[in-house]
Amino acid sequence: MKLCVLENDVLDSELAARFTGFGDMFRRLFQEAGTNWTIDIFNTVQGHYPASFDDFDAVLLTGSRADAFAEDAWIVELRRRVTQLLQARKKLLGICFGHQLIALCLGAPVGRSPQGWGAGRMRYQWHAPEMAQALGRTEIALLASHQDQVLELPEGATLLASSAFCPVAAFAMGQDVFCMQPHPEFVEALSSYLIDKRRALLGEARYTASLNSLILGHEGLEMARMMVAFVEGALDPVPGPCQFRL
């Protein structure tokens, strides 16, 4: 399998020294999940894209500190290309910003979360029976960091996961699109860094709760295995044909 990662941020120097970038985090995560995929990384902030997406089995859109609805030139160009990928029925994975941008391209509203910043370990209810069966339970805990979120499910999409804080936490379109708000690629050290950085924005109560939540761990590897199964065609979140409305 060959995966294209569209990396939608450049990490702060301190984080880059420890983690390189979102693309490399996913490379490590998928290796840990047991894949031998070829993974090519392109930084969209710097205007980097493959000459063609035809050679890739799937495209993954990473998170970003940017807003998916912003009018920066690189974000406008990314939305244009993602719309083309949707029309071409290319298999897509979207994480956080990527999840939001794909939803936006599908016509769903995206904006600031009414609940404010989400950070640290968060629990989500899984609604898709096959995915819940693969997990062996109906809930999963993942690390999150976002102030924006998908405000309504895209038309024709199936809701896969939700929480009181984030009602549209994951969705699918047929067997072609699988998106989620939390970050399966995050590790506790990265999440802790971001929580510390945003302490003033979070407020002391949410800052303390978010930081303490990291002690409980997360299930990013389990989610990575589900993403692998989706890309390789071993797991269909939503049986039946995909119906896009673009």
Compile the SSE list and pairings.
Blueprint: E1 2-7, H1 13-19, H2 22-32, E2 38-43, E3 58-61, H3 73-87, E4 92-95, H4 97-105, E5 110-112, E6 118-126, H5 129-135, E7 139-146, E8 148-150, E9 158-162, E10 170-173, E11 177-180, H6 188-197, H7 199-202, H8 204-213, H9 220-231
Parallel strand pairs: 1-2, 1-3, 3-4, 4-11
Antiparallel strand pairs: 5-8, 6-7, 6-9, 9-10, 10-11
Query: What strand line-up does the widest sheet have?
Result: 2-1-3-4-11-10-9-6-7
Shape: globular
Helix content: 25-40%
Strand content: 15-25%
Low-confidence stretches: 239-246
Total of domains: 1
Number of strands: 11
- Let me know the largest β-sheet: 9 strands, mixed
> Superfamily at the CATH H level?
Class I glutamine amidotransferase (GATase) domain
Structural class of the helix and strand makeup?
Answer: alpha/beta
CATH fold annotation: Rossmann fold
Radius of gyration: 17 Å
Order of helices and strands: EHHEEHEHEEHEEEEEHHHH
The number of helical runs is 9
